[in-house]
Amino acid sequence: MFSLTELSRSTQRAICLLVAAVVVAASLTLGVVGAQHAQHDDYSVTITQLQ
């Protein structure tokens, strides 16, 4: 019984780690896609320094 509980805890940790890795990878991918999309738009930004 104790071994089954330990296996279940280990499995829960592994699944949680896997889900966290998927979430991080997905958010990084979305960030990269957003950055690429922003680079290819047809507008420019000019920064002027006021004196």
| Low-confidence runs | none
| H/E series | H
How far the N terminus sits from the C terminus, by CA atoms, comes to 75 Å
Mean pLDDT: 83
* Number of continuous helical runs: 1
Biggest sheet layout: none
**Helix share bin:** over 70%
Which secondary-structure class do the elements indicate? mainly alpha
**Rg on CA atoms, Å:** 22 Å
Portion of residues in beta strands equals under 5%
- In one word, what is the shape? rod-shaped
Report the count of strand segments: 0
Descriptive terms for the model:
single chain; 51 residues; mainly alpha; 1 helix; 75% helix
Structure notes:
The protein has one helix at 2-39. By secondary structure, the protein is mainly alpha-helical. The relative contact order is 0.07.
